[in-house]
Amino acid sequence: MVTLELNRVSARYGRRAILQEITTPPFKGGQIVALLGPNAAGKSTLFRRILGLLKGEGEVIISGTSVDRPVAYMPQDTGARAVLTVYESVLLARMQGRSLKVQPEDLAQVDRALAELSITSLGERDLGNLSGGQRQLVSAAQALVQEPEILMLDEPTSALDLNRQINLLSVLRRLADERNMLILVALHDLGHALRFTDASMVLENGHLVACGPTEDVITPALLHQVYKVTARIEPCSKGRPQLIVEEAV
Ligand SMILES: Nc1ncnc2c1ncn2[C@@H]1O[C@H](COP(=O)(O)OP(=O)(O)OP(=O)(O)O)[C@@H](O)[C@H]1O
């Protein structure tokens, strides 16, 4: 089973230190881990550091993999891209690092990724003229289609309507449960984190200030300290923890 562990991981842009000695327990396939923290806390930087796009001290330890490219990444929205159709762009993402010859299995995986995210009907559309939410779903399909063992998504629901937010997070839950994927997902919606994730890491100014089971991590005290809001967490009628934010402090 795939695992990912960070040992005193740091990162800097030029001379400016961003991440400071981040250490985590091993996260395992089948888990969804939320990466939380306010704006500019260092969440995207941590993704880039895990991917090896940024150098720094400490170790990113990935073990138990059985494929050449175990990690796929969905970045935050970067705007319209190349002149490709949605289908071509997802197929291109699939073929990265594989043989140049497209196999029937590759096409089947593209169809599956588009269907899973309910965007099959966008297949022939040009990438350049999609809505922000449509682009975000295509970007998720580009990551899913790679069939990674570790999937990292940077705020994948930020442009989606409520139905599509829940749908995407439910797809992630299923990928973790059924395909034993390890999923790291940066989220601003702590309600989603409480509902869909097993563990959470909270960054504040580049420091890891909390890490553990999500229900233990997201507390009124943490919300006050890190997010500067007063809030309560109460079970809803179905017994699930609900976050009720009162005010900014
Ligand atoms: N390419 C870069 N060069 C220099 N500084 C950068 C660069 N990218 C990000 N930073 C800085 O690093 C810090 C962390 O940024 P990062 O994007 O990792 O935060 P984040 O937690 O993902 O924020 P958000 O929730 O707003 O997306 C910020 O102060 C940001 O301004």
TrEMBL record:
Residue intervals of the ABC transporter domain: 4-230
GO molecular function, one term: ATP hydrolysis activity
Pfam families: ABC_tran
PROSITE patterns found in the cross-reference section: ABC_TRANSPORTER_2
Keyword annotations: ATP-binding, Nucleotide-binding, Transport
Family matches, as SUPFAM superfamilies: P-loop containing nucleoside triphosphate hydrolases
Recorded superkingdom: Bacteria
Keyword Transport: yes
InterPro entries recorded: AAA+_ATPase, ABC_transporter-like_ATP-bd, Metal_Ion_Import_ABC, P-loop_NTPase
Name used for this protein in its record: ABC transporter ATP-binding protein
Protein's organism: Vreelandella sulfidaeris
